[in-house]
Write a structure and sequence with these properties.
About 45% of the residues lie in helices and about 15% in strands. With about 325 residues, the chain is of the alpha/beta class. A hairpin with a 2-residue loop joins strand 6 and strand 7. Helix 2 crosses helix 12, helix 12 packs across helix 13 and helix 13 runs antiparallel to helix 14.
C-alpha cells in the first residue's frame, strides 16, 4: 500500500485549503501535460465525494492520472488490474483458516485502501465488476456475513478501454451510475507530446511528488464544498436541464434524481476550485458532460452520436434563468 510524502503545517482555513487544491492542480499538471481541464474535473470529482471513471484508448495516461491523484492528495493507494479470470474475492478479500489458532482470519483485499484504481475495469466479467457495487455505494463490504467499513476517505478511480475493443464487458447502467463523473483524456497537443517523448518517464516523476494535503484535510475540504451556496434560480436551471433530458426526442433515458444530485455536487466542487462565491450556471455547464454523458441513453433516431455532442445539445436547448 502506497502513500505519498506528506507536507508539514497542513492548511486549516478555507482559503489555505483552496490553495492546497490549486497546488495539487499544478503538481499534477507537471505529470499530466496539457490536460488542465481533465485534472480539474478529476479533483472536483473527489472533492464532491464521487467516484471517477476514466475512459479512453490505451497509452493516453489514464493510470498515471489516477496515481498522481493518490500521491498529490496523500492517500493510500492500491491498483487492481482487472482481467477476465478475476473473482470477487480478489478484490474484497478472503477468510483464511489459521491452523495455529483453529480460526478463520479475514485477509483484506486491495479494496481496503483510500484510493483504489480499478484498472481496465471492463476487462473483467460482470461477476467481478459487481464486487465494487456495495463498496462504491455504501463505503463498506460484506464478507462471510460480516459488514466491514472501508477507509475514509474512500474513492474508486476506474479506467476502461472503449467498448468496441476486443475482450471488454460493458459496465451495466447501475454500475455506471455509481460514478459521479466520466472523463476522457484524449491525445495531447503537439507541444505537450513533444515534451512527453523527449522528457523523463512520467512514472519516474511520480516518485518526486509531495502531497499537497493530508487525507484529513481532504475530508475538511469536502465539507467546505458542500457549503457552497446554490440559489433557487440555479436549482431551476438544473431542473430544466433534467426535464429536457427526459422529454427530448433525442434521448431515450434521461437523468434520474440521483443524476441531478450528482450534477449539483460536481458543480459545487468546481465552484469551490474556481473560488466562486456560489454555484454559477457556468459551473453546471462545465461539469455537465462529465456527469450526464454516461447516464444518458441516446434515442436510436438521434443525430447526436457521441455523449459530448448530446450533452452540448441539451445545454444549447435550455435557457439560463
Amino acid at each position: 500500500m502506497q502513500r505519498a510524502k506528506t507536507i508539514e503545517n497542513l492548511p486549516t482555513s478555507v482559503d489555505a485549503q483552496r490553495d492546497a487544491v490549486l497546488r495539487a492542480q499544478r503538481t499534477m499538471g507537471k505529470i499530466i501535460l496539457g490536460k488542465d481541464e481533465q485534472i480539474s474535473l478529476a479533483l472536483a470529482c473527489l472533492l464532491a465525494r464521487g467516484h471517477l471513471l476514466i475512459e479512453d484508448l490505451p497509452g493516453l495516461g489514464k493510470t498515471i492520472l489516477a496515481q498522481s491523484l493518490a500521491r498529490t492528495l496523500g492517500l493510500t493507494f492500491r491498483r487492481i488490474q482487472f482481467t477476465s479470470d478475476m473473482l470477487p474475492a480478489d478484490i474484497i478479500g478472503v477468510s483464511v483458516f489459521r491452523q495455529d489458532s483453529g480460526k478463520f482470519e479475514f485477509q483484506p483485499g486491495p479494496v481496503f485502501s483510500q484510493l483504489v484504481l480499478a484498472d481496465e475495469v471492463n476487462r473483467a466479467t460482470p461477476k467481478a465488476q459487481s464486487a465494487l457495487l456495495e463498496a462504491m455505494e455504501e463505503y463498506q463490504v460484506s464478507v462471510d456475513g460480516e459488514t466491514r467499513p472501508l477507509p475514509k476517505p474512500f474513492f474508486v478511480v476506474a479506467t476502461q478501454n472503449p467498448g468496441d475493443q476486443i475482450g471488454t464487458f460493458p459496465l451495466p447502467e447501475s454500475q455506471l451510475d455509481r460514478f459521479l463523473m466520466r472523463v476522457a483524456i484524449g491525445y495531447p497537443d503537439e507541444t505537450s507530446e513533444r515534451e512527453i517523448i523527449a522528457g523523463d518517464d512520467r512514472r519516474q516523476l511520480l516518485d518526486d511528488i509531495e502531497a499537497a494535503m493530508a487525507p484529513e484535510t481532504l475530508v475538511e475540504l469536502q465539507k467546505a464544498v458542500r457549503k457552497q451556496h446554490v440559489s433557487a434560480a440555479l436549482i431551476d436551471y438544473v431542473q430544466a436541464l433534467v426535464r429536457h433530458t427526459r422529454e427530448s426526442a433525442d434521448i431515450e433515458i434521461g437523468l434520474s434524481p440521483r443524476g441531478a444530485q450528482a450534477l449539483v455536487a460536481a458543480a459545487r466542487a468546481r465552484s469551490f476550485i474556481e473560488n466562486h462565491s456560489g454555484v454559477y450556471p457556468d459551473d453546471i455547464q462545465a461539469v455537465f458532460a462529465s456527469v450526464a454523458g454516461h447516464r444518458l441513453k441516446p434515442a436510436g433516431s438521434t443525430r447526436f452520436r457521441s455523449p459530448s455532442e448530446l450533452c452540448q445539445h441539451v445545454l444549447d436547448s435550455v435557457a439560463i434563468p
